[in-house]
Amino acid sequence: MDPAQLKKNFEEQIATTEKQITELEANLLKAKEYKLKLVGGLETLGLLENDSEQPPAPPAPETPAE
User: Model-level pTM?
Assistant: First the structure.
């Protein structure tokens, strides 16, 4: 391979790699957003479990009738 062909080959590889990096960064962002949604879902489930585990509030004391 002569230097001109090598240069062309390297430039094509760089362009391809830059495109792959852009796609991977976009996918990483989507994955991070999805993870945040899952964490939020777990937190919501935790709150719901805590609400259901708490005993019911005692009835309000009755005031004597006059």
Answer: 0.64
Q: 5: domain range?
A: 1-53
Please count the CA atoms within 13 angstroms of the CA of 34 that sit on its side-chain side: 6
- Give the position of tokens 């990096």: 21
- b/e map 12-32, b = 16+ CB within 10 Å: eeeeeeeeeeeeeeeeeeeee
- Mind listing the pLDDT tens digit of every residue in the chain (66 residues)? 799 999 999 999 999 999 999 999 999 999 999 999 999 999 999 999 888 776 666 666 666 655
The domain tally of the chain equals 1
